[in-house]
Every structure is written in structure tokens, then in C-alpha cells.
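can u do me a favor
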């Protein structure tokens, strides 16, 4: 039942928001969509691998086709207000307050933080290089699913997807097991970023 404050009521409101945004965007669907993504070796293709920490920060690295000896690295602490919002998202009492329509602290969901990391790294590299399409690798299933669908019922995710689409690039998202995302995980803890940077330099990469 669509009782105020119920899960069904919240999901119905999210669906209405998605419908309104889709109608206003009026982008349509390609008559013959591409069935196979272009190769990562194609000029202008950026491959990013990112991770986000609920406690420390966000980090990742990227390779741009045509620059085989260069790696772009991101490692940054969350601002205090964003760290507090992440903590509020993980707090059980705060979550209950939000679901019940009661006053609650501002929050930022962890999947949105993961998606933000992907969008941020791609945006930063795009400021210094010609990026036309992006392969985004993450260990966060909701973030990967949102990039694949290009839409989300979550308002925070939806805002980030709109920013990603505004970059005028094609996104291809892939999920990897968490244990295979160790370098991006280290970069999401800025105090350990030097471990990844030093390893990259030893391997012969120029770090940007």
C-alpha cells in the first residue's frame, strides 16, 4: 500500500522523479544501438579503476589510449561535511528516521560515493586530455549497474549520472571482485597513496 512513509510510497515517489526527468530529457533510444563497445585501444578511450572509502576518501587510476607509459592517479580525503554525510548514511537510527519521514542529518549513500569517484576521475582527466569514451571499473555493484542503465531511482545517483552524461562521452561499466581492486582501494586511503605511486614509477610509468 502507498502509505506515507512506507517502502512502496518511497519507491513510487522515486519512480515519478525518474519519469519526470526522462520526459524532460526526451533523448529517445537509438534505432540501432551499438551491440559491441569500441576497443579500449581506440584513440580517446579512457579506462578508469576507482574505489571509495566510507572513512577516508576516494581514489583510483586511469590509462588513456595512446599514452601507454602514463597513468593518471587520484587520491583525496573526503571533506569533513561529506565524511559526516557518509557516516549518517551508514547510521541505523538515521536511516530509520529518514524512512519514517522524521528529521535526519544530511546523508550521502556509499554507492553514490563510489559513482562520484568514477565521475570525478574521468572529469579530471578530461580537463587535460581528449577523452571521448570511458571504461569504468569498480567493485561496487550498484554504481556499475547505474552506469550501465544510465538511470537510477536514487536522486543522488541520478544527479551524478546526469553529470556523467553531460561529459558527452560513452560509458562502459564493469564490476570486479573487491580483492582485485587493491590498488584503487589503497588510493582511497590517501595516507597510503605513495605505495601505488612508487610501484607505478618502478614499473616505468609517468604518474600524473
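np, heres the sequence
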Amino acid at each position: 500500500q502507498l502509505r506515507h512513509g512506507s517502502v512502496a510510497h518511497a519507491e513510487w515517489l522515486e519512480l515519478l522523479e525518474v519519469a519526470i526527468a526522462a520526459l524532460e530529457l526526451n533523448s529517445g533510444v537509438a534505432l540501432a544501438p551499438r551491440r559491441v563497445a569500441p576497443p579500449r585501444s581506440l584513440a580517446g578511450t579512457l579506462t578508469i579503476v576507482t574505489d571509495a572509502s566510507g572513512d577516508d576518501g576516494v581514489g583510483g587510476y586511469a590509462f588513456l589510449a595512446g599514452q601507454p607509459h602514463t597513468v593518471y592517479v587520484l587520491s583525496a580525503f573526503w571533506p569533513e561535511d561529506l565524511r559526516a554525510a557518509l557516516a549518517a548514511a551508514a547510521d541505523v537510527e538515521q536511516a530509520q528516521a529518514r524512512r519514517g519521514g522524521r528529521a535526519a542529518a544530511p546523508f550521502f549513500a556509499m554507492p553514490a560515493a563510489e559513482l562520484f569517484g568514477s565521475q570525478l576521475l574521468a572529469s579530471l582527466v578530461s580537463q587535460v586530455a581528449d577523452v571521448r569514451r570511458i571504461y569504468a571499473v569498480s567493485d561496487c555493484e550498484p554504481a556499475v549497474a547505474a552506469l550501465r542503465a544510465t538511470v537510477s531511482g536514487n536522486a543522488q545517483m541520478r544527479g551524478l549520472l546526469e553529470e556523467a552524461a553531460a561529459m558527452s562521452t560513452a560509458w562502459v561499466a564493469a564490476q570486479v571482485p573487491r580483492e582485485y581492486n587493491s590498488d584503487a582501494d589503497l588510493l582511497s586511503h590517501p595516507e597510503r597513496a605513495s605505495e601505488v605511486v612508487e610501484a607505478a614509477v618502478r614499473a616505468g610509468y609517468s604518474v600524473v
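DSSP finds eight helices and six strands in the chain. hope that helps!!
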